[in-house]
Design a protein that fits this description.
The protein is α/β, with parallel strands linked by helices. It has 4 domains: 2-177, GAF domain (Beta-Lactamase, 2-Layer Sandwich), CATH 3.30.450; 218-372, P-loop containing nucleotide triphosphate hydrolases (Rossmann fold, 3-Layer(aba) Sandwich), CATH 3.40.50.300; 376-478, Helicase, Ruva Protein, domain 3, CATH 1.10.8; 484-534, no CATH class. It has helices at residues 2-12, 17-29, 71-81, 97-102, 144-149, 155-199, 218-228, 244-253, 275-280, 287-290, 306-318, 349-354, 360-366, 383-398, 407-414, 421-436, 443-447, 452-457, 468-475, 481-495, 506-510, 514-524, 528-534, and strands at 32-43, 48-55, 67-68, 86-89, 112-120, 123-136, 234-237, 262-266, 295-299, 320-321, 335-336, 340-345, 370-372. The chain is elongated. The two termini are 64 Å apart. The relative contact order is 0.07. Mean pLDDT is 80; it is low at 146-151 and 451-477.
Length: 536
């Protein structure tokens, strides 16, 4: 029995049914001839049964194909069991005819079919069946060594062994199912990651391209290099869309905190009544506990509530966190925390302090090393590089040919006032790429100016800026960005008649990963079946 126990233990450590079965087969073969082993899983609601294993010593190349089944077949099998954990069938007529025909089952003289449902942790896999077609050696003589390793076969002992085989296979099936699910989640996550990177025109998540490092952002990056090596908090201030998040990530990646998490928190998006728990909570862990040893970027820091400001001040001053729910009177319940705090705002915090809306002590802590980001209007010399960068990103995101901005395009972009700064420039270039369909950048229409030449004709020196009033009036006729993207993808899918991958598929035409395309179609609510049906 020692050998059987070793085989049983080894089988239970496997991650695949096929691997576990090879060890169990070794044990069974000592007691007789294995003619076939089936592991069948029913998907009763979908109307099919799927062979997970179809093993026989003389038939290695078995095609495991789903077969149709009706609920009556499964009901007949369960009725045959009558609540027993296992049965031995010696007459083929006792089994449902449909079941026998589907899997070409037969029973010869002295043989039998042992059937058992797979179990794990006393919970049955009620739709997964183990079937063993076995010819026992009742009358064969055994050597002394065989007798030591394999006791004489009797019904009770063999039944127990089959039940143990079902138990082991149940454990392995649960493990294999978990691994398969994790693999699917990993593939989905990779596809989503690739979709996000494509959306933002990036190759990895570790860093972003900084345009203007030698011109408009030179002084900013000089200060970044000074502060990155320290643990000091940083305050970034500048207009909305000026690139504060990019600079925050740059500080993180150039610091000793880089191997640890970077978490961006939009303070303005958190309901005031939930702010303390979401930032400083214990169960579930708040943002500070999740980012311990890393960098937390508090965007719109002026939106912090008074109590949140006090807790943040305690972290900056004492390096401890008193999570929400703990007794405020017991110092021992504080948690040491080491975290880099980068705050950002597009408001004047000094005004908030003067109006008693922001803690003066917290202001002094955060503003120990302030970094001001210039607006796009202050760094127009960076416009050629910025426009080219966003054009390349747009081509990658939308699967379009690269259309780079001309000198005339850049001059036209410089005339605009850019209230939304870098963020608005990126959106305008995206629209221009879609409107130009990869052949050119339609900057004028993207900015909401119907006729660029007529606009220039009234301004021969090319210095007049587009007025906000006219801009907003023109923007009313501009189609939303996602609508343009959806319309373009629907056109491509219609051309390929719903084909996503393979030769002449949409992914090949757009030169993007098929999983990335599927993710984007799902996000935009595009049903490819419609295009398949329309083209039949």
């Amino acid at each position: 029995m020692i050998r059987f126990l070793e085989l049983w233990k080894t089988a239970g450590l496997q991650n695949r049914l096929e691997d576990a079965l090879s060890y169990l087969v070794q044990g069974l073969s000592h007691w007789g001839v294995i003619r076939r082993i089936l592991v069948l899983q029913w998907e009763n609601a979908l109307g099919y049964v799927e062979p997970l294993i179809d093993y026989s010593p003389d038939k290695n190349d078995v095609s495991l194909r789903r077969k149709e089944c009706d609920s009556a077949t499964l009901a007949e099998l369960k009725l045959l069991y009558g609540g027993r954990p296992m049965i031995a069938v010696k007459n083929i007529m006792h089994l449902p005819i449909r079941f026998v025909e589907q899997f070409s089952l037969k029973i010869d003289e002295n043989a039998a079919l042992w059937l058992s449902w797979l179990k794990h942790r006393k919970q049955p896999f009620s739709e997964t069946l183990l079937l063993v077609d076995f010819l026992p050696r009742f009358r064969q003589e055994k050597t002394a060594e065989q007798k030591r390793e394999s006791p004489e076969l009797n019904a009770a002992l063999f039944d127990e062994y089959i039940l143990e085989c079902a138990s082991v296979l149940g454990i392995v099936l649960e493990r294999e199912t978990a691994f398969r699910r994790l693999s699917q989640l990993r593939e989905t996550a990779e596809a989503e990651k690739e979709a996000i990177l494509t959306r933002f025109g990036r190759r990895d998540l570790s860093s972003e391209t900084i345009i203007g490092a030698d011109q408009g952002l030179r002084r900013v990056l000089e200060r970044v290099n000074l502060i990155a090596a320290t643990h000091s908090p940083v305050l970034l201030f500048g207009e909305s869309g000026s690139g504060k998040a990019l600079i925050a990530r740059t500080i993180h990646h150039r610091s000793s905190f880089a191997p640890y998490p970077f978490l961006r928190v939009n303070c303005g998006a958190i309901p005031r009544e939930l702010m303390d728990s979401q930032l400083f909570g214990m169960q579930p862990p708040g943002a500070f506990l999740r980012t311990n040893n890393g960098t937390i970027f508090l965007d719109d820091v002026h939106k912090l509530t008074v109590s949140a400001q006090m807790r943040l001040l305690q972290i900056l001053e004492n390096g401890v966190l008193k999570p929400i729910g703990m007794n405020e009177q017991i110092p021992a319940q504080t948690i040491p925390i080491e975290i880099r705090v980068i705050a950002a705002t597009d408001h004047d915090l000094r005004l908030y302090v003067s109006e008693s809306q922001f803690s003066e002590e917290l202001w002094y802590k955060l503003a120990a090393f302030p970094i001001r980001l210039p607006s796009l209007r202050e760094r127009l010399d960076d416009m050629p590089d910025l426009a080219k960068h966003f054009a390349e990103r747009a081509a990658t995101r939308f699967g379009l040919p690269l259309a780079t901005p001309s000198v005339r395009d850049v001059e036209f972009l410089k005339q605009y006032s850019w209230p939304g700064n870098i963020r608005e420039l990126g959106a305008v270039i995206d629209r221009a790429a879609l409107l130009g369909n990869g052949k050119t950048l339609d900057i004028a229409t993207a900015l909401g100016v119907p006729n660029r030449d007529s606009h220039r004709g009234n301004d021969p020196n090319g210095k007049r800026r587009i007025h906000d009033k006219n801009r907003w009036a023109a923007f009313q006729s501009v189609e939303p960005f996602e609508s343009l993207e959806k319309r373009y993808l629907e056109y491509v899918i219609s051309v390929t008649q719903g084909r996503i991958e393979g030769e002449h598929g949409a992914a090949e035409l757009l030169e993007i990963n098929p999983n990335t395309l599927r993710s984007r179609l799902k996000r935009l609510g595009i049903n490819i079946r419609i295009f398949k049906n329309d083209n039949k």
